Amino acid sequence: MNDFFSRRNQVYPALFQGRAAVKKYFDRREDWLRERDLYALLNRKLPLPQVLWSAPRILVTEYLPHPHLLAVLERQTRSGFDRAPWVQLENWLKSCQALCGNLPTDGNLRNFLWDKENQQIIGLDLEGYGIRSIADSGADILASLLEYTLPASDVQAQIAEFLSGRLHTSAGQIQRARDRLLSRRGGIKFAPITGVVLAGGQSSRMGRDKAALPLMGRTLLERQIDKLKRLGCREILISGPKELEAPGARAVPDLYPQRGPLGGLHACLSEASTPRCLVLAVDIPLVPLQLLDRLFRRHTSGVTLVTHQGRREPLLAVYDSALAAKIPPLLAEGGTPVRRLLEQTQTTLFHYKGPELFLENCNTPNSYQKICIAAETYDKHDISLL
């Protein structure tokens, strides 16, 4: 799911009329109109994903399983500089400007796919386009390339030198673009976060330990731990017995045994070394990485939780670690639900717009089978549901 990140809107994989697709949900109607109209203008004139369907604030395009240019950059860091993708990037930008006068207003290399077989660049995410020069747009692309953290290599410098000459971008333009990029990044401050996997349930309806259930070669617990690692969680805690401990994650036993999810949440919030925790139940194995990323970026204080179709998901949320102090009086009452804590806490809702399937709970053998079939179906279309 790492290929579906967007900082502005929610983007998820989908199956549309039997084919792999990408479904984008726009927060603002004007952004949807701009991108829809630009796709229509450039259709069959530039390599682009085919638009399969559009409705107000929704755009569905075909999914193309090619690597984006950041992945190409990483690969060339290991294998050596190859000019082919970068020549085609230059050609794509110049063709786009000639056709519509618009070019990317940011330099995100994830928005360009490299189709090696056909030796062509494919553009994505046309929402952030505007009237500008090749040199200015190239400066933003080069700034993103040069500021991307990679192992020590001269490939970045080689690509930058090659592209700057082809795009007629001056050293001053590139430096100003790098300054703007670093300024934007500096204005977005995210406190360190602890990942929490709630895996201490009895699994009574399933009849076996849900954390150990296999799905596409990994257990449900391993999948959730992997997502938290990919999000950069400083530490990962597992609510449950010592037997659940896994590489890179530490098991935390309940301080108040037999008190349900709230007891596990209390133990992990108490143990966390960071001011906030991204909490993820083990039995929602298809939850998109992009949703988790947007969720913790949305958090300011208290609790930020996912809501969808009128339902709230308190076990798919970000909690301030300091809320641990509020929980013991509630646990003294017995098996208190997590919503009792939410009633006493500032709560922000993140409205999930993607497929309901991705938030399916794996509580019974039937729901587990449904999730396995879904994961296998997406995998057949070259889409990995992490």
Question: Quick summary of this structure?
Answer:
By secondary structure, the protein is an alpha/beta fold. It is built from twelve helices and 17 strands. A seven-stranded mixed beta sheet has the order 13-12-9-14-16-15-17, sandwiched between helices. Strands 1-2-4-3 form a four-stranded antiparallel beta sheet. A two-stranded antiparallel sheet has the order 5-8.
Write the layout of secondary structure elements.
Elements: E1 10-16, E2 19-25, H1 29-42, E3 51-55, E4 58-62, H2 69-79, H3 84-100, E5 102-104, E6 112-115, E7 120-123, E8 129-131, H4 134-147, H5 155-166, H6 171-187, E9 193-198, E10 214-215, E11 218-219, H7 220-230, E12 235-239, E13 250-252, H8 260-271, E14 276-281, H9 289-298, E15 303-308, E16 311-320, H10 328-331, H11 339-342, E17 347-351, H12 365-380
Parallel strand pairs: 9-12, 9-14, 12-13, 15-17
Antiparallel strand pairs: 1-2, 2-4, 3-4, 5-8, 6-7, 10-11, 14-16, 15-16
Helix pairs in contact: 4-5, 4-6
Q: Can you walk me through this structure?
A:
The chain has 386 residues and is an alpha/beta fold. The chain contains twelve helices and 17 strands. Helix 4 packs antiparallel against helix 5 and helix 4 packs across helix 6.
The total of helices stands at 12
Number of strands: 17
Major β-sheet strand ordering: 13-12-9-14-16-15-17
Shape, per Cα inertia axes: elongated
Uncertain regions: pLDDT < 50 for 5+ in a row? none
* Radius of gyration over C-alpha positions, nearest whole angstrom: 23 Å
The level of helicity is 25-40%
